[in-house]
Amino acid sequence: MVQSFFQRNLQFNRSFKKKLNEQLMKVGLYHSQWSIIYYLKQFDTTTLVEISNYLDVEKPTITRTVNRLEEQQLVVKIPSEDKRERRIQLTGKGLALYEEAKQIVDAFERSLLTGIPDDDQKKTVEVMQLLLEKLK
């Protein structure tokens, strides 16, 4: 049962990202870019380290993705009082793209959850949160 649970979770995550990428391509984004844009919308300005910690992704990977977003004029780096630290925030173009992508993501997620009772959804989220806490 345990192996099956985790194997199914891995399969779901791969399939979910693949299908989500197909949807996000409508606005020229990938899941990795969307994750950062979503985070920035929630927290306004942040650092590469904060994004890296939140997404549990190595800082060089986050740096490359943020640089691509900056080239697309979706984010801007803002100097901070600490010269070693740069804060990042969404641009107006980035905020507009967030709104467009959010509609796509919401519709995609709603389509997946259709027919799954609310109690089952809630229990799944609770179990995933418990497992995530055990990994930290």
TrEMBL record:
Keyword tags: DNA-binding, Transcription, Transcription regulation
Domain of life where this protein originates: Bacteria
PROSITE patterns in the cross-refs: HTH_MARR_2 (PS50995)
SUPFAM superfamilies named among the record's database cross-references: Winged helix' DNA-binding domain
Species annotation: Oceanobacillus bengalensis
HTH marR-type domain ranges (all copies): 1-136
Protein known as: MarR family transcriptional regulator
UniProt-recorded Gene Ontology molecular function terms: DNA binding; DNA-binding transcription factor activity
InterPro entries: HTH_MarR-typ (IPR000835), WH-like_DNA-bd_sf (IPR036388), WH_DNA-bd_sf (IPR036390)
Keyword Transcription: yes
